[in-house]
Structures are given as C-alpha cells and as structure tokens.
Amino acid sequence: METPPAVTFSLGVGESTGAGLQRILVEQADLGTWHLERAQLSDIHVHEVRKATKRVRAVLRMLGDDIDSRDYTSLNVEVRDLARELSEIRSAVVQVELLGSLVAEDEKLTIATSGLRGELVAVADKQRQGLDDSEVDGLSLRFASVRSGIDEIEFHDDATTSLGGVRRTYKRGRRSMTHAYAVPTVESFHIWRKQVKYLRHQMEILQSVGIPRIPDFVADLEEIGEGLGGDHDLADLERTADTVAVGTLSSSTRRQLKEVIDTRRSGLELKLKPIAARVYGANPGAFAEQVIPRFV
C-alpha cells in the first residue's frame, strides 16, 4: 500500500521561523499533489487535497507581512481556486452521508426521503465521473506551479512579523464570530468557520514551541471548526432539499426535514457559543501578548 509523503506540521528544534514555514508550505503542496493524483481512487484523497490547501492558506496568512503582497495574492488565489474545483465533489458525498445520519432513527422519514437520497447519490456519482484524467492532470500541474512559487520566495527568519499575521487571523475570527451571532445567516457562520480553520492550523504549528495555552486553543478551535462545518453541511442539505423537484419530496416531508435540520443547526450554534467566548474572549493585543514574547 502506498504511503503519502512524510510531513511535519510544526517548527523543528532550532529551526528558524522563515525556513520552517517555507518547509511546511512545500510539504503541504507535495502532500496535496500526491493525494490529488489519486483523487479518482477515493473520496478520502479529495478530502485530503482540500485539507492541504487550507493549511497552505493558513501559513500564507502567517507570512502576510514577510512576503511580497503579489506573491501572497497569487499563491493564495491559486490554492483557493484549486480547492473550489473539488468542493462540489466533497459537498455531494457529504450530503449523502448527512441525510442518512439525520433520518436513521426515523423509519418513516427514511422512506419518505429515499427519492432525495437517490438524487444525491446520482449527483455524487456524476461529480466523481467528472474528475477524469485530464482534470486531475490539470489540477496537478497547478499545484506544481504553487510549489514552484513557494520555492522562489525569499523567507525572512524574523518571527515577529509572522506572528503579526496570526494576530490578524485572530482579530478577523473574533470579528466574524461577533457578526455571526448578531446576524445568524448561513454566510456569516461560513465566513467565521474559515477564520477558525486558519487560526487552528496556525496554532497547530506554534504549539510545537511549547507555549502553554496553545494546546487548549487548538482543541477548542478544532471543536468549533467541526461544529461550524456540520452547521454549513446541514445548511447545504437544506438548500438542496428546497430545490429538488416536487415529486422527489412531498411538501410535508420537506417541512419535516427542514425542522430536523433547523433543530440540529440551532443546537450546534448554541453549543459552540461558550467555547467561542473562551477562545475569542481576549482582545487581539492581549492574545498577541500570550504568543509573541516567546519569539522576541
């Protein structure tokens, strides 16, 4: 059985921040390419490609003050677009699994939503078939271009400005959290979710240097990210259920499914609120005080 390239998503002992972050970016680009070349074999590989793109974007945000803005923009946009190319496959697969879990304990609802499940399975199969050899080759070349772009950047060894990028990510996440609970739309929670993921990956890297509170941050951010991911998937499924043909779901089944989804989403958002308050309770300056002094 093939094994993916070895990666270390942390700074090594004695490794300068610039060299370490460049190495991490290169490793994630190589890992993403490896999984991309096998994306036709399993949905797991598609998921791993998307995870690699999120880690790359998180690290680029750490380096926002250290690299040329044009390099940052071009790499960030390219990696973002790579992930988007695979988002429909991931979404289709998740919706099939999510519907099954929502109706599993209700036999009548399981039967009533069988038409919707059939539609979702067909969409997922179509998305997989659309990922042909030429599509994979094209995406692999684009990932190779990202890797080359990373190699060409001159990275500074000074850590202070890199951690300024972490402070900005925290600030944006804190602002996004406040907005999401004040204006609880699908989009506002989705925007917050992206900032949570970026900060989580940045904290995963920094926890290797032994800052006491960071492991707690990572655990909390992981829980928030998983919860917001579930919230977003539920909202996607509800949108899909609203748009399928009338014959696929009866109006009563549509209403019942919406109630189940809304209840699950409300429970998730309420559960995450105290965890989010714990993570984002400090102002950005106070948060930075807990991180930056260790490197100066």
Describe this structure in words.
The protein is mainly alpha-helical and 296 residues long. It has one domain: CHAD domain (Alpha solenoid), CATH 1.40.20. Helix content is 77%, strand content 0%. It contains 11 helices and no strands. The longest helix is centred in the first third of the chain and has 35 residues, at 69-103. The model has no long low-confidence stretch (mean pLDDT 89).
**CATH homologous superfamily heading:** CHAD domain
Give the distance, in angstroms, between the N- and C-terminal Cα atoms: 45 Å
Work out the number of β strands: 0
Indicate the structural class: mainly alpha
The CATH architecture designation is Alpha solenoid
CATH class: Mainly Alpha
- Name the shape in a single word: globular
Mean pLDDT rating: 89
What percentage of the residues does DSSP assign to strands (E)?
under 5%
Q: Helical content, roughly?
A: over 70%
Number of helices: 11
Q: Biggest β-sheet: count, sense, barrel?
A: none
Query: Can you tell me the number of structural domains?
Result: 1
CATH topology: CHAD domain
As a whole number of angstroms, the C-alpha radius of gyration is: 21 Å
Uncertain runs are none
SSE string: HHHHHHHHHHH
Name some characteristics of this structure:
296 residues; mainly alpha; 0% strand
